């Protein structure tokens, strides 16, 4: 029979087996390489893990990518050879910016300052401005350019709140206006800084200044005795800070050595009480912001005698300034008040001319 004997198949040659092995190794190598490129290197071998380990395989690369993407540089690219995700050394000149979570912004030096004057209404202005979504401000007074300048700009920057792109960083320290070194120091930080001065009738301001000191030191001499070097001759003591601060024209002269008038805005302390929305409108225009703070944000508190916010920053409740604001002034001898008015009149007139605005303190 033709088919009585079934022959055996010949085994494959060694060459064919070697080729198959090489192809299999190549496929495995390509697979592992693709896993590495996808971020899977450094994990347990494929197929050799339990369910928990397998979950870790997919989670760790994703967590790494998420962590890396959770941060961004806010001050330019990294130096050659350094990863842009490597935090800068503290105080590094190459990396003046801060590493911050996306959406939270970064700390910047202030672009605008409320520089004065003491007892003029600076706290009220700051609290009102903080309602604006494009303004972020420090609550406490840093006193950097008068008391803490030796700490350096990085120390100052760390005091600032984080801001997003388009927001303005601000702070207020009223004593800057009368600090001789402050204008040059601020100009050294940035000549583009915008400065705001809240001014008030210098006689009323001096009495308010004295009232604040009296609340802390009840045993101080009377207002009348501190006002004069010699009560008989009527010579005013200009070395007393309560009097000296109110010579606005003198202090403004110092500021104009470093900043042009168009970078300085003067806010009326009186109008901040009688028409807060109007004065805030001028401030928002000066800062280049949309007029968001309007009449609808204020109500007048009859007890305190000044406007309060219907809703404060980050709150849904009405907010008035603290009990230290709006103190009752002591009764001052009318003759002393008139002597002070006569003293300030020529300085006030010069100040009106310099600013191009009539504040009406001599009416």
Explained architecture:
It is a single chain. By secondary structure, this protein is α/β, with parallel strands linked by helices. The strands form five sheets. The protein has a five-stranded parallel β-sheet with strand order 5-7-4-8-11. The longest helix is centred in the first third of the chain and has 24 residues, at about 15-35. It is built from twelve helices and 13 strands. Residues about 1-10 and about 40-100 have low confidence and may be disordered.
**Structural class determined from secondary elements:** alpha/beta
Q: How many whole angstroms does the radius of gyration measure?
A: 35 Å
Q: What's the shape?
A: elongated
Percent helix: 25-40%
Main sheet: strand order? 5-7-4-8-11
* Oligomer classification: single chain
Number of strands: 13
Number of helices: 12
Q: Helix and strand string, N-terminal first?
A: HHEEEEHEHEEHEHHEEHHEHHEEH
Mean pLDDT: 80
Strand content: 5-15%
- What are the low-pLDDT stretches, counting only 5+ consecutive residues below 50? 1-10, 42-102
Main features:
5-stranded parallel beta sheet; alpha/beta; 38% helix; two-stranded antiparallel sheet; elongated; 363 residues
